[in-house]
Amino acid sequence: MNPSTTALVNVHWQRDIVTREGAFGPFFADEVEGRDAVKHAAQALATAREQGALVVYARAAFRPGYPDLVQNCALYEQVAATQCLQEGSEGAEIIPELAPRTGEPVITHARISAFQGTELDLILRARGITHVLVTGVATNVTVEGTARDAVGLGYRTVLVADACAAADERAHDATLATFGLLGSTLNSTDLADAFTTEEIAE
């Protein structure tokens, strides 16, 4: 992979989603901590920055009162029930361990995929991006949804497996097993070599 045409998209590293105190902590915190997903995401982030790849963040957030929240599934019903991920709240913030730097785009979205209803595709195309790497939570929900949309839009797409987590190991592994038909997977420790060998997703 050429770093100049690669983007690392970091999905939902937010307090309400990945911390034990967050609204979705009961669902995801054990796996996030058990898999050291934050540490691996930080390693992927450091490598991407060092190599000069584009770093992008995708966060879920809703306006006060949730006028932009369509409760058509259990996930969004849970958002409404817990009153979480409101714009401007501490819970909607990205965790400090993976905080964006000045100039790194932060995309806010209200649906499953970070591409839907956002400028993410435009931002990537404006930079000449051809390859998309994805980290985040949950592997089988927004990570997979975003990755599948990236494939559909023509990007070569890679899941950074150890920098993702789901509610349980089976859900995480199921996504990784099926995604091989659409793109590739690697671990954060392999990312530096992937930028130089061009063996992944080429």
Shape: globular
Named CATH architecture:
3-Layer(aba) Sandwich
Element pattern in H and E: EHHHEHEHEHEHEH
The count of strands amounts to 6
The major β-sheet equals: 6 strands, parallel
- With helices defined by DSSP (H or I, 4 residues minimum), what is the helix count? 8
Class from helix and strand fractions:
alpha/beta
- Beta content comes to 15-25%
Strand order of the largest sheet: 3-2-1-4-5-6
Distance between the termini: 7 Å
Uncertain runs are none
CATH class: Alpha Beta
Per-chain topology:
Blueprint: E1 6-11, H1 15-18, H2 25-34, H3 37-51, E2 54-60, H4 74-82, E3 106-109, H5 120-126, E4 131-137, H6 139-152, E5 156-165, H7 169-179, E6 184-186, H8 191-197
Parallel strand pairs: 1-2, 1-4, 2-3, 4-5, 5-6
Helix pairs in contact: 6-7
